[in-house]
């Protein structure tokens, strides 16, 4: 089996790499792809050095069985055709295709059968908060139909990627040294703080993050 990781140097890409290392999957070849900034980096996998290739519109995905992509919605949209052209199944971690009618939105513990109907050879996975919620909701729904869910989430800096985690660590160090914290990735200081707002507001006064959970939950649970 030939596997590709797109966005290999990011926080999620590194987690892909770590989990594939742990699992006993019959991977004959692993390809790593990234941006100009990360191309050329070298990572170890099962004792071998693998160099990150620059993601380009070419035939690099020929022979790939599955491509795990986590490089942002814009990159996913731009390269979806390139990745799937030769038959690879693209399993996408971004928000790019989640609500497309012809792209299944899958949580394996909840709706694995949906993955079999992927006419564009793209399978999306949901927002992180949706994933953990629907696993619990599935069990309850089997007992009694759910009419409404009230949700509070407390989300970590890691949800915004490696740069966000670096900023949080930097802020703790700066505050510990009596300095003003650096604020770039977030609108406000995140260290020792909780920001009661994630993503941008929509016309109904809910944020995009909140509406993602609303729409994705219905799609996954066919409810």
Query: On the 0-100 scale, what is the average pLDDT?
Result: 94
Strand order of the largest sheet: 5-2-1-6-7-8
The biggest beta sheet is recorded as:
6 strands, parallel
How many strands? Answer: 8
Low-confidence stretches: none
Count of DSSP helices? 5
The geometry reads as globular
Helix content: 25-40%
| Relative strand content | 5-15%
Radius of gyration: 19 Å
Q: End-to-end distance, in Å?
A: 35 Å
Query: Which structural class is indicated by helix and strand composition?
Result: alpha/beta
What string, H for helix and E for strand, traces the elements in order? Answer: EHEEEEEHEEHHH
Kindly describe this structure.
With 223 residues, this protein is α/β, with parallel strands linked by helices. Helix content is 31%, strand content 14%. It has 5 helices and 8 strands. The protein has helices spanning 11-22, 73-84, 128-143, 162-176, 208-221, and strands spanning 2-6, 29-34, 42-45, 48-51, 53-54, 66-69, 89-92, 122-124. The strands form 2 sheets. The protein has a 6-stranded parallel beta sheet, sandwiched between helices. It has a two-stranded antiparallel ribbon with strand order 3-4. The radius of gyration is 19 Å and the shape is globular. The two termini are 35 Å apart. The model has no long low-confidence stretch (mean pLDDT 94).
């Amino acid at each position: 089996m030939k596997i590709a990781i797109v966005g290999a140097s990011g926080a999620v890409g590194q987690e892909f790499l770590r989990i594939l290392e742990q699992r006993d999957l019959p991977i004959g070849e692993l390809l790593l792809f990234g941006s100009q900034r990360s191309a050329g980096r070298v990572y170890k996998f099962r004792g071998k050095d693998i160099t990150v290739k620059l993601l380009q519109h070419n035939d690099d995905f020929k022979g790939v069985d599955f491509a795990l992509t986590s490089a942002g919605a814009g990159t996913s949209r731009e390269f979806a055709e390139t990745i799937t052209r030769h038959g690879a199944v693209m399993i996408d971690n971004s928000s790019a295709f989640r609500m497309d009618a012809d792209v299944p939105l899958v949580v394996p513990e909840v709706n694995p059968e949906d993955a079999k109907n992927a006419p564009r050879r793209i399978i999306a996975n949901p927002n992180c908060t949706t994933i953990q919620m629907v696993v619990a909701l599935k069990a309850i729904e089997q007992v009694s139909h759910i009419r409404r869910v009230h949700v509070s989430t407390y989300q970590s800096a890691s949800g915004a990627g490696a740069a966000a985690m670096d900023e949080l660590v930097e802020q703790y160090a700066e505050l510990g040294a009596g300095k003003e914290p650096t604020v770039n990735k977030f609108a406000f200081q995140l260290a020792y703080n909780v920001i009661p707002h994630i993503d941008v507001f929509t016309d109904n006064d809910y944020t995009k993050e909140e509406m993602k959970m609303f729409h994705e939950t219905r799609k996954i649970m066919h409810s």
